[in-house]
């Protein structure tokens, strides 16, 4: 099976084309190819397919075999992949995802994709849609997990994200594993530990649901910027979000959230399953 490996701000993915729907057990395939010792190694598997309502369809499966509706770093890589592999020949186009249709805009340099901008949609704080257990919303509330108190805000931006600000102390990103599966979250949550550097710059470390600690999470950077602006930690339209693997630019506007950042090919080859 032919594959490409790509990364966006250090979040790495295996891309496989499946226009004829020949792949049957996608989740088991993801666990095999994403394994860093017995497979290729990646945070997730991305399957490229045809779409009925957009120019292409992106299927995302985490390294543990669980499905994800959306991934910000993956969709930037997806935009570069379909353009440079001549699947799509436009620099503005729509992509079908598990979180609906997303709009992509490419910036080219010598006919290569240098930067990708994605409309990520509007964030949702409604506990029914996140979904939360027995809460209408979770905005800047103190929650106790394993005798540790955290000020949490949780929202849905493609996938559930919980944002915790490091005001008086720093947190190890691995603490996200306990919070991910805390009983408040019906389907688990991604966890973002955020430090505010100034009114336009924040730092984010993310524990991803289904993947663990990653070098970057696009939806997590978006969620962190949205909450930072909502709670008054930052101002202005553009927020520069630094993750361990790189920096993304997040714009929080009235019509929704826009994410811009790089995407790169790592390698291509064949894997024997």
How many individual β-strands? 18
Query: Which segments are poorly predicted (pLDDT under 50) over 5 or more consecutive residues?
Result: none
Biggest sheet details: 12 strands, mixed
* Proportion of residues in β-strands: over 45%
Q: So, the CATH homologous superfamily of the largest domain?
A: Diaminopimelate Epimerase, Chain A, domain 1
What class, by secondary structure content? mainly beta
State the share of residues found in helices, binned by percent. 10-25%
Number of domains: 2
The ordered string of helix (H) and strand (E) elements is EEHEEEHEEEEEEHEEEHEEEE
The radius of gyration is 18 Å
Topology-level CATH name of the largest domain: Diaminopimelate Epimerase, Chain A, domain 1
Estimate the mean pLDDT confidence.
96
Distance between the termini: 8 Å
**The CATH class of the largest domain:** Alpha Beta
CATH architecture descriptor text of the largest domain: Roll
How many helical stretches? 4
> What sort of overall outline do the alpha carbons produce when their principal axes are compared?
globular
GO molecular function: diaminopimelate epimerase activity
Pfam families: DAP_epimerase
Catalytic activity: (2S,6S)-2,6-diaminopimelate = meso-2,6-diaminopimelate
Family: Belongs to the diaminopimelate epimerase family.
Task: Give the secondary structure arrangement, pairings included.
Layout: E1 2-8, E2 11-17, H1 26-34, E3 44-49, E4 57-62, E5 67-68, H2 72-84, E6 92-97, E7 100-109, E8 112-121, E9 138-145, E10 148-157, E11 159-165, H3 176-180, E12 190-198, E13 201-208, E14 212-214, H4 218-230, E15 238-243, E16 246-253, E17 256-261, E18 264-270
Parallel strand pairs: 2-3, 11-12, 13-15
Antiparallel strand pairs: 1-2, 1-18, 3-4, 4-5, 6-7, 7-8, 8-17, 9-10, 10-11, 12-13, 13-14, 15-16, 16-17
């Amino acid at each position: 099976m032919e594959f490409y490996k790509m990364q966006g701000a250090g979040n790495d993915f295996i891309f496989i084309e499946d226009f004829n729907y020949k792949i049957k057990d996608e989740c088991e395939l993801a666990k095999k190819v994403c394994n860093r010792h017995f497979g290729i190694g990646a945070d997730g598997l991305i399957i490229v397919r045809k779409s009925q309502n957009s120019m292409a369809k992106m299927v995302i499966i985490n390294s543990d075999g669980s499905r994800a509706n959306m991934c910000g770093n993956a969709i930037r890589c997806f935009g570069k992949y379909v353009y440079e592999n001549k699947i799509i020949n436009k620099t503005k186009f729509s992509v079908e995802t598990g979180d609906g249709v997303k709009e992509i805009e490419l910036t080219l340099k010598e006919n290569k994709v240098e930067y990708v901008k994605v409309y990520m949609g509007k964030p949702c704080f409604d506990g029914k849609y996140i979904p939360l257990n027995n809460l209408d919303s979770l905005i800047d509330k103190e929650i106790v997990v394993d005798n540790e108190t955290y000020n949490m805000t949780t929202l849905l931006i493609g996938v559930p994200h919980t944002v915790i600000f490091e005001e008086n102390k720093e947190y190890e990103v691995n603490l996200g594993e306990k919070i991910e599966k805390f009983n408040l979250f019906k389907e688990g949550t991604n966890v973002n530990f955020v430090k505010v550097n100034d009114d336009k710059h924040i730092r984010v470390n993310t524990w991803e649901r289904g993947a663990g600690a990653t070098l970057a999470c696009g939806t997590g950077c978006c969620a962190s910027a949205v909450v930072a602006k909502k709670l008054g930690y930052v101002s202005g339209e553009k927020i520069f979000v630094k993750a361990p693997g790189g920096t993304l630019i997040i714009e929080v506007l009235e019509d929704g959230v826009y994410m811009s950042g790089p995407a790169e090919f790592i390698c291509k080859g064949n894997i024997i399953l």
